[in-house]
Design a protein that fits this description.
about 260 residues; alpha+beta; Arc Repressor Mutant, subunit A; 3-stranded antiparallel beta sheet; 7 helices; 11 strands; about 30% strand; elongated
């Protein structure tokens, strides 16, 4: 059973998710009356929400509590699931499983996973939530022969944890490509944003401890809620970058399809 503090937090987060960034929720007095709680309990919850970047507290005659929708930081230096990096930043992670199926791979998936056209892949599409608010739309594919029974598992948490605990797989590295794209009407509906809004498309090939590709995924992160972080090494101006280092490449202008 949720404590009074947790219940108060859920009520406030629900109002935050229903509003727009910059909207005033109210003054402390107004919020205490609205949620029927004491000012001291309210301040405790607001302090945690402010630390998480969900609200801003402004002092003064025209001040109050304002919706912030702070950005989630995703590190490019670690192979870690969404629940783990959300939890590390104080967010409550959630998931909506949209669809699951076993299907024939397209040419891009065949190449990424190193499988043949006659092989099959497990496909899982999910919306990931941060404090109840959609943060990303992900489509992950796995070799069906390698992970029998995967769709029978609980798919609301970290898939990497399932792969490790049930199949003995440990992720060793991931190759990622990042693009700035605009949300299609369908993507916008699923993420609770306007069509054409900025998204970060992260295409990833994940490898197991033996260097074998085990996952090919396409994640769409909300541009207004996500920032990327990476630790880069300096080796001098004349040093040549190695193939495995992070890099930026220019792409020819073309319309994104699908």
């Amino acid at each position: 059973m949720a404590t009074q503090t947790e219940e108060l937090r859920r009520l406030i987060v629900a109002d935050i998710n229903a509003g727009e960034p910059g909207t005033k929720l109210g003054s402390e007095r107004e919020l205490a009356e609205r949620y029927r709680t004491s000012r001291s309990s309210l301040r405790q919850v607001l302090a945690a929400l402010e630390e998480s970047g969900l609200v801003d507290r402004v002092i003064g005659r025209s001040g109050g509590i304002f919706i912030s929708h702070g950005q989630v930081q995703r590190s490019l230096s670690d192979v870690v699931g969404v629940p783990a990096f959300l939890a590390s930043q104080g967010y409550v992670a959630g998931t909506r499983v949209l669809s699951t199926k076993i299907a024939a791979p397209d040419a891009t998936t065949q190449q990424a996973l190193g499988i043949a056209a006659e092989d099959f892949v497990i496909e899982i599409q999910r919306v990931r939530l941060a404090d109840g608010s959609p943060i990303s739309l992900e489509l992950a594919r796995f070799p069906a022969e390698t992970f029998p029974g995967l769709l029978e598992q609980q798919l609301g948490g970290s898939l990497y944890e399932i792969l490790e605990s049930h199949y003995g797989l440990v992720t060793s590295r991931a190759d990622e490509r990042i693009e700035a794209v605009n949300a299609t009407p369908e993507e916008a509906t699923l993420l609770g944003i306007k069509p054409g809004s900025a998204l970060l498309l992260i295409t990833r090939i994940t490898y197991d401890q033996n260097g074998t590709p085990c996952e090919y995924s396409r994640d769409l992160f909300r541009g207004d809620r996500t920032r990327l972080a990476v630790t880069a090494r300096g080796r001098g101006v004349g040093a040549q970058p190695s193939v495995g280092d992070a890099s930026v490449a220019l792409q020819s202008q073309q319309r994104r399809v699908g």
